[in-house]
Amino acid sequence: MIQRRKTRVVNVGGVLIGGNNPISVQTMTKTHTEDIDATVQQIKELETVGCHIVRVAVPTIVTAKCLGAIKKQVRIPLVADIHFGHHLALEAIAQGVDKIRINPGNMKDKKKLEEIVLAAKDKGIPIRIGVNSGSVRSEGDEDEELTTLMVKTVLKYCDHFESLGFKDVVLSLKASDVPSTLDAYRSIAIQCDYPLHLGVTAAGPPSLATIKSAIGIGGLLSEGIGDTLRVSYTGASELEVKAGYDILEALGLHKRHEAELISCPTCGRCEIDLVDIVEKVRQRLPGDKKHLQIAIMGCVVNGPGEAREVDIGIAGGKGFGFLFKKGEKVRKIPEDRMVDELLEEIARMA
């Protein structure tokens, strides 16, 4: 059982981050935000795959002035991603966004920062202080260790915000490499009680980013660190959301939104065409059998044990397999009937 780190709770447009609240899955749109129709359409697509919070880029004042129109057409909380221009943050707040993200590496004017904080405080809008490894260094700190610098920078901003009576803060400390990401989050986790937004930034294309995120985000979550997350892909936002859920599900932090197939990697002991059987079952699984665990195993080494531990499973032999349901061996099935009989049994299950 994972023991979650204790944090304060921050309300982002009705989604509660921190405390004992479920870990939320976020992403960012890939559209030009000023294209209101395209941005709304993408957000609605993200809503259908279970995205909890969505962030949009705000590079210009024209973009910032579009945020109110976008927010009116979507259901999930809208976050404005602000870099450099404090006036963009002020306009986003006036447009009624649900959260502001600022990057300390790109916003260093103390008085302008205070304007943002006081405006957000007046409207009850939380702020994410999101530091990235690629933008945190400035003149004079080139020799400082990266994760130490990230943590020190974030805590400096937190102290400033607190001095203004502003406490609705979420933190992120993202690096593009996993070890730095892990070090930064582990360090900040023991120095404050702010909720943490997890992610590995600029993680690359899906094949590489999935591995980096599973290790980085998943590793922290397994230690009880993290309250919301975003998987970063050079690719579709919908894939980021699905990957986020996969990480949560692998750790038992979210109930599966589809049936879970458990199957072995095959080896010289396997005497059925396991790859073909698994693929055929996967393609034909009924959509209403959510949360079922289904094991399809190739031999007697782990097969019977795995098949007994799940809702329904098959343990393969030489050209046949034994069917198990809820821990009980039911019957022997020839290989050419495995797919059909397994699916028939799954269809009967409530």
Automatic annotation (TrEMBL):
Binds 1 [4Fe-4S] cluster. Residues 7-244 form the IspG TIM-barrel domain. Its cofactor is [4Fe-4S] cluster. Residues 260-347 form the IspG C-terminal domain. It holds the Pfam family GcpE. Pathway: Isoprenoid biosynthesis; isopentenyl diphosphate biosynthesis via DXP pathway; isopentenyl diphosphate from 1-deoxy-D-xylulose 5-phosphate: step 5/6. SUPFAM superfamilies: Dihydropteroate synthetase-like, Nitrite and sulphite reductase 4Fe-4S domain-like. GO terms for molecular function: 4 iron, 4 sulfur cluster binding; 4-hydroxy-3-methylbut-2-en-1-yl diphosphate synthase activity (ferredoxin); 4-hydroxy-3-methylbut-2-enyl-diphosphate synthase activity (flavodoxin); iron ion binding. One of its GO terms (biological process) is terpenoid biosynthetic process. [4Fe-4S] cluster binds at residues 264, 267, 299, 306. It catalyses: (2E)-4-hydroxy-3-methylbut-2-enyl diphosphate + oxidized [flavodoxin] + H2O + 2 H(+) = 2-C-methyl-D-erythritol 2,4-cyclic diphosphate + reduced [flavodoxin]. It comes from the Bacteria. Its EC number is 1.17.7.3. It is an enzyme of class 1 (oxidoreductase). Keywords: 4Fe-4S, Iron, Iron-sulfur, Isoprene biosynthesis, Metal-binding, Oxidoreductase. Belongs to the IspG family. Converts 2C-methyl-D-erythritol 2,4-cyclodiphosphate (ME-2,4cPP) into 1-hydroxy-2-methyl-2-(E)-butenyl 4-diphosphate. This is 4-hydroxy-3-methylbut-2-en-1-yl diphosphate synthase (flavodoxin). The gene is ispG.
